[in-house]
Amino acid sequence: MSDLTTLKQQLIDEVESRKDELIELCGSLIKIPSENPPGDSTEISKFIEGYLGKYGLKTEWHESADKMFNLISSIGIEEGKHLIYCGHTDVVPAGDRSKWDFDPFSGEVVDGWLLGRGASDMKAGLGGIIFAFALLKRLNIDLPGKLTLAIVPDEETGGEFGVPWLLEKGLVKGDGCLIAEPSSPLNPTIGQKGSYWFELEVFGTPGHGSLSPVAGGNAIVDAIEAIEKIRSLWDMKITIPEEVKGLIEVSQRYMREVEEDREKFQPVLERITVNVGTIQGGTKSNVIPESCKVQVDCRLPFGVTQDEVTAYLKKELDGLGIRYEIRQFGFRSNANHTSAEDPVCRSIVDNITFVTGENAYGVMQWASSDARHFREYDIPVLQYGPAYLPSIHGYNEKVQVEDIVRCAKVYAAAVIDFLYENK
Question: What Pfam families would the database entry show (predicted)?
């Protein structure tokens, strides 16, 4: 057994022996409401700073918007490689409390499950990287490079004041990044589809409802025709680039063989998905509506760009002879990925196998995340974190304790492989 393998095993054993402490940390994070909106991360940021401070770790605060705080802490040396561990403190609102079977901010453990809003997305993962980061300091592990903990307050509403803000300001840099976002136990996500959110506004001519359709121009009726054209994006012919075909194929196999309930979702990796999320139009039933707004969420596979989607939509909608405007908002990106052979991917994947004894490999995610921002700055990145995927953003969110412990072991061991490789 090599010295590095011995060191990794020591860290894994330390996580195991201190797992109660790890779960207590994750539960404490859940107990602090950090819903976004409104996005006030003051209380949870103070808690994290206090936890790190107990072990002599200093935390930088960077306020990107009112009461939205980005935290940065680092250990190691400037020479050598630089690894980033990233997580977000915000969670989606708990919603109707009466529909929960337990207090959404209880942070309790019941029958091997940690309960509460953010348990899976992503306070268990956040707790894991904080714990692993502090553990390396507590054990006085000499690192031949630098490990930075970057904790952001704004991911659930698009992330404008989190990761992209830090990258634009040059406050975080690195040779690789791990985001502790939810994933499957053996399958981190190394690629994401692109995002294309837009609002279509269709304009009509108002008039008395008793004269429709002879008089006026009904914006809602025209919007219905427009929606059918928008939905045809699903049938748009797309050629998947050769360099990502392998990733698509392994991801579809994962959907068939691992998450078997997702077998029917295989086509979404190669097509543009279209969700008509909201429709708003008209004033009352006896007035011909002069405006109708439709908000749509499209996710883009490899092989098509945002500009190409815009051109397709304009061509189809212009053919209807309607008056309209298209405005993009929210998530915007083209499909992106990190090679499975990149050192940061190998470090995480190899150590999932080292910890579990099972074959691990990276897959494609059909949604999108903060990972796209790191890739825009040429920082290789992947996502791996504990989760009970069906509970994310829903009522009764939870995560298994054993998943939290496994991921924390991987986080600690992967630092060694990444920073020591080609040091």
Answer: M20_dimer (PF07687), Peptidase_M20 (PF01546)
Q: Residue 73, class by beta-carbon neighbours within 10 Å (0-12 exposed, 13-18 middle, 19+ buried)? A: buried
CB-CB contact of 75 with 88 (8 Å): no
Q: Which domains does the chain have, with CATH numbers?
A: 3-192+336-420 (3.40.630.10), 194-236+271-333 (3.30.70.360)
Residue 417 to residue 423: CA distance in whole angstroms? 10
User: Can you tell me the distance from the alpha carbon of 106 to that of 55, in angstroms, rounded to the nearest whole number?
Assistant: 26
- Let me know: does 186 contact 386? Beta carbons within 8 Å: no
3-state SS, residue 132: helix
* Number of residues in the chain: 423
How far apart CA 88 and CA 62 sit, in angstroms, is: 14
Strand partners, 364: 191
- Sign for the CA dihedral angle at 164, 169, 171, 172 comes to positive
SS3 of 112, please?
Answer: coil
Neighbours of 363 (CB within 10 A): 24
Rg (CA), the chain: 24
DSSP letter assigned to residue 233:
G
Tens-level pLDDT at each residue, the chain (423 residues) = 579 999 999 999 999 999 999 999 999 999 999 999 999 999 999 999 999 999 999 999 999 999 999 999 999 999 999 999 999 999 999 999 999 999 999 999 999 999 999 999 999 999 999 999 999 999 999 999 999 999 999 999 877 899 999 999 999 999 999 999 999 999 999 999 999 999 999 999 999 999 899 888 999 999 999 999 999 999 999 999 999 999 999 999 999 998 888 899 999 999 999 999 999 999 999 999 999 999 999 999 999 999 999 999 999 999 999 999 999 998 789 999 999 999 999 999 999 999 999 999 999 998 878 899 999 999 999 999 999 999 999 999 999 999 999 999 999 999 999 999 865
pTM reported for the whole predicted model: 0.91
Question: What values do phi and psi take at 225, rounded to 5?
Answer: -60, -40
φ and ψ at residue 390, rounded to 5 degrees: -65, -15
- Alpha-carbon distance of 8 to 391, in angstroms, equals 32
Please name which of 133, 134, 118, 153 lies closest in space to residue 32, comparing C-alpha atoms.
Answer: 118
* Environment class of 302 (CB within 10 Å of its CB; exposed 0-12, middle 13-18, buried 19+): buried
**Closest by Cα among 249, 245, 191 to 368:** 191
